[in-house]
């Protein structure tokens, strides 16, 4: 199919190329009769504007990067969908990027978004530093973090009270009479792992139990396969744990698969609690008790913050939104 140029549209409409450009970019300054003539020529010729060229002339694009550490994770997929729904509603384009918690990959994506003059970026940071974020801002790329940390006080963030969520889970298990809890965490350098484990320890301490009432089982990622590996470790260890709190639902579902295949009953032989409340939690063979977080609303809130940052760049409010989770009790505990 032949590509129609802006010059052909101008010739068809009997106007200058500059007038066609104004109709595309600043239609309010063009007389209605001339604007209608140009629009008719565009439709007759099937002209498609060169978006990249328009972005360069305007100094920015409608793109917003959503940079997540694992787009396969159902909770993060919900976050991305919430952000995308909001961005679509205000005429922005979402660009989804997956980092696999790889610092180099993360920085390459952020470089690419800056080079393409994106409006901004929503990011679960893998290895960002304050200096790096300042550099993004200097290059015109606004950022909102999915990150529960005060490390970046000058950057807007949206996060969950994961310490409180960990406390909810452990308090629930303690109330059921459990005194030894295995806590399956993700990577030890990730904020989610650190905070959810801290919440578990706080609940145990408040109950007057020793710190070793919590057995930490660290795994390399928040995945179903890593949950299965954690389950195997729990079954083959000399643990006295009667309950397991997992740092997300995929880990919990993996643990339950291994436990039930070994002939044990959930929750009679081993109670299990997860975190996130993904769709699969409620439909599992033994419905999973979990800490509920609304990922869709989290994503919408982050996108709303970013759009506000872009729209009002000089107000410097740098807001930090912290969502409170809640416990959803089901059959697994």
Automatic annotation (TrEMBL):
Q: Which residues form the HTH lacI-type domain?
A: 4-58
Provide an example Pfam family for this protein: Peripla_BP_3
**UniProt-listed SUPFAM superfamilies:** lambda repressor-like DNA-binding domains, Periplasmic binding protein-like I
**GO MF entries:** DNA-binding transcription factor activity; transcription cis-regulatory region binding
Listed A to Z, the keywords are: DNA-binding, Transcription, Transcription regulation
Keyword Transcription carried by entry: yes
For this protein, the record's InterPro entries field holds: HTH_LacI, LacI/GalR-like_sensor, Lambda_DNA-bd_dom_sf, Peripla_BP_I
* Protein name, as recorded: LacI family DNA-binding transcriptional regulator
Name the source organism. Thermobifida halotolerans
């Amino acid at each position: 199919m032949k590509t129609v140029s802006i010059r052909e549209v101008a010739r068809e409409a009997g106007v200058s190329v500059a007038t066609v450009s104004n109709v595309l970019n600043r239609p309010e300054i063009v007389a209605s009769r001339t604007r209608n003539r140009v629009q008719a020529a565009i439709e007759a010729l099937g002209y498609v504007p060169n978006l990249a060229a328009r972005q360069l002339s305007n100094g920015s694009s409608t793109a917003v990067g959503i940079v997540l550490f694992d787009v396969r994770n159902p909770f993060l997929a919900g976050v991305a969908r919430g952000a995308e729904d909001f961005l679509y509603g205000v005429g922005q384009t979402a660009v989804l990027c997956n980092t696999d918690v790889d610092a180099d990959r993360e920085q390459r994506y952020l470089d690419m978004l800056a080079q393409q003059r994106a409006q901004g970026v929503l990011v679960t940071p893998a290895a960002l530093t304050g200096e790096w974020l300042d550099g993004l801002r200097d290059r015109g790329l606004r950022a909102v973090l999915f990150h529960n940390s005060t490390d970046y006080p000058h950057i807007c963030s949206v996060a969950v009270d994961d310490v409180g969520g960990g406390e909810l889970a452990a308090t629930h298990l303690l109330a059921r009479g459990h005194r030894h809890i295995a806590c399956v965490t993700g990577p030890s350098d990730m904020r989610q792992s650190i905070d959810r484990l801290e919440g578990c320890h706080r609940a145990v301490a408040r109950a007057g139990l020793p710190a070793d009432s919590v057995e930490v089982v660290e795994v390399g990622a928040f995945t179903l396969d890593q949950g299965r590996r954690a389950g195997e470790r729990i079954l083959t260890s000399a643990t006295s744990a009667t309950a397991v709190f997992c740092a997300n639902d995929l880990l919990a579902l993996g643990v339950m698969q291994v436990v039930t295949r070994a002939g044990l009953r959930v929750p009679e032989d081993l109670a299990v609690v997860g975190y996130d409340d993904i769709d699969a939690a409620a439909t599992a063979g033994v419905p999973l008790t979990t800490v509920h977080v609304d990922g869709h609303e989290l994503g919408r809130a982050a996108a709303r913050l970013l759009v506000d940052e872009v729209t009002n760049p000089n107000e410097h409010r740098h807001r930090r939104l912290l969502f409170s989770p809640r416990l959803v009790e089901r059959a697994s505990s």
